[in-house]
Each structure stands twice: as structure tokens, then as C-alpha cells.
Amino acid sequence: MNLPVLPLVFSLLLLAGCAGVGSVPTQWQPPRDNADFTADGRLAVQTEGRGSYANFDWARQNGVQTIDINTPLGNTIGRLCRDPQGVLAVNSKGERFEAANVRELSERLLGFVLPLQYLDLWAHGQWSADEPHQTAADGSLRQAGWDISRSTRADGSVRTLSMTDGKLSLRLVFDSMRPSENSTDAPNRCAARNNS
């Protein structure tokens, strides 16, 4: 090998190494205005040594988030909905419940706490600006009493979202999460409010 070429090769390798270190993307980002979306997948819950599984259908459109929790056979266990007026839930019998906060409502309807007010941000790899947060070397996020981790597909869309608060573990496995068409014609309130 020609000796003058050796310093050039070494310099290129050094530059390539430095560029690789600087281009590693951070997993958690500051909040931003996310597009409306629809998602579906499976949900696993573990608490006090017991576990349960369900399917979910999740949509956010025009400021309204709706999550349907379904049995593996497709029967709806409950629906949580968050809109500018607050949070409400509907159980499998069609009974409607409202509560002061998401925590109380999801626990009453589902038997566990579903942090609905943060889920869309966490699924998109963002923290909430409303709560202090910490990121760990392993890529996890700590916020609002939850330890959160996520994995993504090659296209950057979320594949899994795992959360634990010490007593409860939630894991969402996404079959899909896709943008939906933003529509100003979409209702800006939970559908169950129309039945009141």
C-alpha cells in the first residue's frame, strides 16, 4: 500500500466514526402537533401477579381520542373517550360514566389505570410538556409515575409501547398505526355525549 494513502484512509475512517456517533437519533422528543391517526393492536395488563389480554382500536381525530378495548372475539369491553369537555367511558352494557380524571375513570371501567392523557404522545416517542420527565441511558422515559419504553418498525412507526408504574404493567403491541385524514367536519366531542 502506498504510504501517503494511509493517512487519508485513517482520516476518512475517523470522520466516518465521528459522523456515526453524531447521527444516532434520540428516541424521545419534545411534544409537537401530531397528525390525526387510527391504530389497532393488542393490550396486555399485569397487576398483582395476574394478567389479562385484550384487543384495542384507537383513533384521534379533531381533538377527540377514542380507545375501544375489545375481547379477543371482538366484543367491546369498554370505550374511553377524551375530548375538550373531559373524559367519559361507556361499558359493554352501554352505561356511561364520567369522572374527574382519566385515572379514576379508566380504573372504574377497566379495572386498571390507562394513562390516556399521555398515550398518544408516548406512542409517537414524545414526552408531555405538562409533566417533568427523565430519559434513561437504556432509551426509556420516566414521566408521571410511569416508566415507558417503545420499539419501532423500520419506517419509524411504533411497534410496542410498554409502561409500568411499579404495581401495574401495560404493553400495547401495534398491528398498525396510520395517519388519518384531518377533517374539520369530524365531531369535536365524544360520540357518547350526543346521547345525553
UniProtKB/TrEMBL annotation:
Belongs to the LolB family. Residues 1-21 form the signal peptide. This is Outer-membrane lipoprotein LolB. It is found in: Cell outer membrane. Coiled coil: none annotated. One of its GO terms (biological process) is protein transport. The gene is lolB. Monomer. It is a lipid-anchor. InterPro entries: LolA/LolB/LppX (IPR029046), OM_lipoprot_LolB (IPR004565).
